Amino acid sequence: MSRAPRRAGAARAGGGGGPAPRAADPAAVPLQGLAPVLGPQTRLVVLGSFPSVASLQAQQYYAHPRNHFWPILSALWGLDLPRLPYAERLAVVRERGLGIWDVYARCRREGSLDSAIEDAELNDLPGLRQHAPGLRALAHNGGESARSMPITRGLGLPVHRLPSTSPANASWSFERKLAAWREVFDLYSLT
Questions:
Q1: Rounded to 5 degrees, what angle do the CA atoms 152, 156, 159 make?
Q2: Is 141 labeled as catalytic in the residue annotation?
Q3: Is the dihedral of CA 90, 93, 99, 103 positive or negative?
Q4: Looking at the DSSP assignment, which residues form a beta bridge with residue 137?
Q5: What mean pLDDT comes out for the span 119-140?
Q6: What is the β-pairing status of strands 31-32 and 118-122?
């Protein structure tokens, strides 16, 4: 799933006729996503779209402090996951049977908004079952990730669409997101 390339810079106001000189365009550099968090006990994989700027800088899934991913898991499991070191959070996730990955392996993007993703390359979603033999279902975290549902449905597993945990999804309250996530997690005995 690729998007159209970004348009060239607009002509400068005040004459000159050529494109305005541009600083190095952050979207010109391809960004590389994070490795999957999977294990032999993984029953459900939550698929995001692509890591935010904060996540890429920290090399951690859902690192933005206002993202609801870790607080939702904390509420579901009765643990204070945000206070744990990242490696310990991942150990808990694996022990509980949850996997984490993104639909895009790499892309170009300025900022963190999904709407800015360009030239996206998919991860090896069909290969998920090889890395998580106990996989029972997939859940897309938000709309951009859900655009890949035709591919994930091809795995022959149940596929769910969850409300995005991103701070950009302000139309859903934390409580409403939590209820939707709980419903899916309950189906696979992850609560």
A1: 50
A2: no
A3: negative
A4: 44
A5: 92
A6: unpaired
